[in-house]
User: Fold this.
Amino acid sequence: MIMSQESEKAVQILIVDDEPLIRKSLYEILRIEGYRVQMAGSGEEASGILSKNDINIVVTDMQLPKMNGIELLETIKKRSPHTEVILVTGYGTIESAVAAMKKGAFDYITKPINDNEIKIIIQKLIEKKKLLDENAQLKQIIAKERRSRFCDLIGASSRIQEVYHIIDSVASSNATILVTGESGTGKGLVARAIHQADQTRKDKPFVEISCGALTETLLESELFGHVKGAFTGAIKDKEGRFEYAQGGTIFLDEIDAFSPALQVKLLRVLQEGLFERVGDNTPRRANTRIIVATNQNLTDLVENGKFREDLYYRINVICIHVPPLRERKDDIPLLTDHFLKKHCGTNGKKNTGFSNEVEKMFLDYDWPGNIRELENAVEGAIIMARTAVINKSDVPNFAKFSSLSAKKSQERNLKKAVEEPEKEHIIAILKDCSWNRNKAAASLGVNRTTLYNKMKKYNINEETI
Assistant:
């Protein structure tokens, strides 16, 4: 954090300029303001200072011998992503300075340096950083509180907030709940969170079964138990999971793997609360909260005759859809921070964070394997990292992230190429019709609403065209 709890005087600034007069002048200006200031005459000297000191802001000239300001910026952002950089540039290098801001520079000032301008920029930077830090801390507090209440579910995005809200709403009910979502999204965590939020059941067993991993015979025995001699290998009576979970919750993951015969038996449990052990005719009562999950589209399975329609309606009393990670990218920084702390601990590492390049790479990627894939990527990067800050080369299979970004860029370029002629044609028709929307829509062969939507999409406005 740039701001300490005491004052802005804790802010450490490094001035980098090969001209002693400018360097000293900036030093005096900022020292008078109460900042702690150091100086360097080259990029190499600055790198040495940065490696030994916790510098918050670097003010560097663009034109330096050997290592220029852009190269120093890249070095700083790889080593310490949270160190802010302000560039000092001559008139002829403003374009380069603007380009450097895209690489992570905060701002630039032109020569000759105006005392008030540099003071205002630094103050603006400090205030911005303070707000960002406070926001990050608030998100961490919220996420931590959510994790404790919702069994390690992590996130503060609007999509995951919807999931939290439904969990709170259904926890006290006895309704059967269907949890849907892609593989790796955390459906099991949602089931555990529901159990934990249920005040009458949270101290009773939570039993989870991965139905797709078991054969029909083994799954039936696991669910309902069996009596001695019911099948080969049944050498004694065995209690099933429904019996063990009495008063608690049973979570049936991959419910789509149920055979037709088992679907009938589960339907009976849901309708009558009764079941029998395999090989026995004695009905037993199930007092268990049932949560089921799938990554398949059950309505398609029903239409194809692979899943009973009556069972589908019985399990789909309440449905919670867990969004894929690509639809809640706001949560990626919280998730990566959580996994960083978790796996640094388990692997005995002391990594402090990710470079800006890695953070952007993670945000650009669509994560088809969802949270599970993200966690694996973070753990792999921690193991491979050679410095405290994790860089792109530390991330296993980082080429796939880069290729995806290139593909997206090509898709964006293609989309733009397709849309541009449409925009020009609409503008031409509007001009021919003297901007009469009704006539233009008729000429284009579309209704007026469609024309308005297109105008909004392409930002077409009579006053600005």
Notes: The CA atoms of residues 326 and 366 lie 5 Å apart. The chain has four domains: 8-134, 156-323, 328-396, 402-457.
